[in-house]
């Protein structure tokens, strides 16, 4: 393994890749089964379980992206102290906090959804069990669940997005103070891939979940969810590898050895 990849940034990337593998695995196989007509039924318990894991993994990704932005902030604004500020213990604690916070944030929401009564139509207008499609099938009063969804979205998505934005405000201000054009380009290249990923992720996630009511077009939601659950995880490896010299160098060395 290339020693240049033994840094906190690549540790965070490994966790992001691992997360997105499970995120996509939780959606794509069932979605393919639905489209092919091979598996078009799902029990209520499995539906709630799928909802819980997908939203938990999505929340974990929000936290993880904000931690990665903080990592870039330390690397660019405090380059001489970076290794002491972001050591292996700190990076491990931050990653564990992301995973724990992501799953805890959705636990109450999944519990409230499981307490709803479902009657009438049992056809989910989606290719997986999303919160809005479940609320649309419920004959109970969903106001409290919608409020909880909105509050959790504010805490998870908006708070992590604001933290990421603050990190990048400091990053950009530090980059602009660099005298040489080569130095500014080199500093910006260390965070350009991450900036591309967070723009795609937060834009689509805010559209889906940061809203006071679930009364929006589910057809539009299906299109955005398809982008979020399939296209974005597919694009991320290309974004990070094609815009990262160390990853490209490690891949080239691996191919040369073969």
**What gross morphology would you assign?**
elongated
- From the N-terminal CA to the C-terminal CA, the straight-line distance is 14 Å
Please tally the β strands and state the result. 0
- Series of H and E elements: HHHHHHHHHHH
| Percentage of residues in DSSP E strands | under 5%
- Helix/strand-derived category reads mainly alpha
Mean pLDDT: 81
Uncertain runs: none
Supply Rg. Answer: 20 Å
Secondary structure tally, helices: 11
Short description:
The chain is an all-alpha fold. It has helices at residues 8-25, 28-36, 44-77, 82-85, 88-114, 131-137, 143-176, 181-189, 192-209, 218-242, 245-257. The radius of gyration is 20 Å and the shape is elongated.
Structure description:
By secondary structure, this protein is mainly alpha-helical. The chain is built from 11 helices and no strands. Helix 1 packs antiparallel against helix 10 (218-242). It is elongated and about 65 Å long. The protein starts with 7 loop residues before the first helix and ends with a helix. The model has no long low-confidence stretch (mean pLDDT 81).
